[in-house]
Amino acid sequence: MYYGLSRHNNYLSSLNDLGHFDQAIWGFLEGSPFLNTDNANQPISRLGGHFDLILGVFVPFYLITPSVNWLIIAQSVSLPLASLPIYFLAVKIGQSERIALMWAAIYLVSPFMLSAASNDFHPVSLAAPFITLAYLSLEEKKSLRLFLSCAFILLCKEHFGLLVMGFGFLWYLKYREFKIPLSLLLFGGGYFLLVMKVFIPFFSSHDEHSMLVGKMSRYGYLGHSLEDVFVNFFANIIEIGHQVLFIMNGWDYLVLLFLPLMGLPLLGCLFLLPGLGDLLANLLSANPMPRSIFSYHSVTLVPVFVVSAIYGSRRFSLLFQRSALKEPVLMALILTLVFSWSFFPFFPLPGSHNHWAPKRIVDFHDENYEKIQGMIKPEMSLSVQANIGAHFTQRLEIYRYPNKVGDVDAVVLRLDSPTLRIGEGNQYIMGSLDNHLQMNAVDYLDSVKTLLGSDVYPEKIWADPWLIFMKGEKTTIGIEDIMRKLQRLKVEWK
Q: What is the pTM of this model?
């Protein structure tokens, strides 16, 4: 929790995505639920891109005080909470309390889980404890609790109907019953089709999900409709499999998922069924980010893989007639710790990747922040630097700099890097300064210099490192100081 709040306060969060969620929830208070202006450079409904109704749960909290901190706290509570059903599930299937604790620890220190925790808030993180609770409900044959868990899961992402269908298949394979599996299949499948073919097109300007069409398309190479994707996938499964595994480095992703768990999920492969849709979504994405160990996209796969490993370990003991499971589970815990240390995302541990490389780890007081917030009135439209955008999203119009410059009331910038990862020159390298700015750092500095020399925004406010351009009376305060800083940063950020 502390890291999440500190990360945001040290300007490592982003307009996309944390700011989008904040504006979507804040919009409820203004009569525009799920409001988003940044993605399309105009006011739209978020539900036209991602159907995460769970955001509505935060509205009562925003009525108390509208703050993005609610989201950060919710994620920091939700992710570790999923370890409790994992512990009880391991005990339920006959493993000792000590081994059950090890399984819970394996989940908590998974490198994918640590990466999800170090990212901006995402609604999918709220599904994690309900996924593990669904597995426990399945094992205990508690159908009502399973349905309630699945209902909550559906609210977190548009394609989670596939996950619910997976629990339906699993119930049938485990208990050979028809009524409950059929209900789960209809529940999950019906919701998935309604969302993808009715609700999202209704709220969107497209007839299909934006991941299939338009500039954000990740699966357009498979087809431009849901039907085309399914047909092309199965009709060309060998060619697509080769492309995904060898050209798109899908093998690396699978190794990172299976290896720390000693391959035990393969022995419990039936229990991977609920995660199959999410796994395929990550593997098939043309954008490599969902397969990165540093992204949040595997947050709902970690509980699936850990639970499958628990069942796999039980099968291991039966196959090799071993009554003690301590050795393989302990080895899985050690391997997970080794991977987590190597890929540790947010502290400079010796030999770790330190993906985010924050310039400051401890929370700090930015003495000019409140001053700037006082100047930027809630009714003003903004074009704002991406990594500070989530601090200004409670308004009807906000866009990612340099979008809408000239049209908006003010431009808000902060001439400082939140990370030590500078000079990489590619905005698509996650965690880099360019990625935080969502543009090449040198191009960013050049654009600021150009804006300084124009009359588009006569009023300029400089409170180092904050730079504000506003429509108002002309000022030249601090121009020379700003130019010197731009020149210095251009050398440092190359």
A: 0.96
